């Protein structure tokens, strides 16, 4: 069985539909090659963006159950308070002698000003950052511009997270070994990086395509951050959760959600690889990879999706310039 486990896992990956559903995870979990290790996280601090529903809340909950102090970076205080209460209940339900160590930091990730304020608060509170999880995501149906003048999907999925990593870079280095995990999407396989039109000004707007291009940009930026931080003890991972039944999917893709509901993963199943990347020992010895179901995956299947070096550099330069970050393109 061990000999067949690798090829079977790869087959699930290439056939997409079975691999992305709950079936794929159920099969992989039974393989002898499944890396089951999930150490406790007592004494560690984990920041999670977009923790108020779906995959982010599931990840934050599981990380708190493992003993981590969890900072919920959320834009909506009422939703954040409700999530905080649910996490408290989950931690106590798992172990009646424990209470969760969970706090809220206000952060609208699509706003550079809000990201700066959130980091100010984190610094004032002298928080450690052992793990940063970029999970917040958006797929607007039409082109929308933020108060700061950025296209909303790009601001939420790419620019805000870029600034957050940059502002926490020194903290992450000081707290090394530390990890940055970005929740991308399998949808990025269908898109090539378009560094010339990152804010989608030059063509008709398709929410699904824009989202997938943002998710491609997240993977490229993950590789570049990994180069910049190589040797510092800060590792960078991007991952995709497969297809999970979340409020986000129901809202943005109601037809898909209805059609596939019975085979969609639960939010916790979607969050499984985030939690493993945050807690396990193995992910500390590698950086810059793209993961699904606790295994590194290719970043391209179709040759036409491969981007030129010049476009990778342009993506980085544009993000740094727009975010006001002084950081040369990683070599
Ligand atoms: N579900 C899937 O099958 C799937 C597949 C591939 C990738 N993903 C990725 O997984 C991540 C989580 O998605 P989900 O399916 O769990 O969706 P979800 O239930 O809609 O959760 C999205 C989270 O992001 C937050 N958020 C959105 N915009 C924000 C902003 N400007 N500032 C701060 N927080 C913001 C939301 O906060 P509010 O509660 O305030 O709205 C919510 O907490 C996303 O990055 C998504 O692209 C999901």
What does this structure look like?
With 331 residues, this protein is of the alpha/beta class. The chain has a single domain (40-323), classed as 3-Layer(aba) Sandwich (Rossmann fold), CATH 3.40.50.720. The protein is built from 12 helices and 8 strands. It has an 8-stranded mixed sheet, with helices on both faces. The model has no long low-confidence stretch (mean pLDDT 95). NADP nicotinamide-adenine-dinucleotide phosphate binds next to helix 4 and helix 9.
Bound molecules: NADP nicotinamide-adenine-dinucleotide phosphate
CATH architecture: 3-Layer(aba) Sandwich
Gross morphology is globular
Residue windows where pLDDT falls under 50 for at least 5 positions:
none
How far apart are the first and last residues' alpha carbons, in Å? 42 Å
CATH topology: Rossmann fold
CATH homologous superfamily placement: NAD(P)-binding Rossmann-like Domain
Q: Using DSSP, what is the number of strands?
A: 8
Structural class by SSE content: alpha/beta
The figure for the number of domains is: 1
List the helices and strands in order. Answer: HHHEHEHEHEHEHEHHHEEH
Largest beta-sheet characterization: 8 strands, mixed
Mean pLDDT: 95
Put simply, the count of helices is: 12
Kindly report the oligomeric state of this protein: single chain
Radius of gyration: 19 Å
- Spatially, the strands of the biggest sheet line up as 3-2-1-4-5-6-7-8
User: Given this structure, which CATH class is correct?
Assistant: Alpha Beta
InterPro entries: NAD(P)-bd_dom_sf, SDR_fam, SDR_member_12
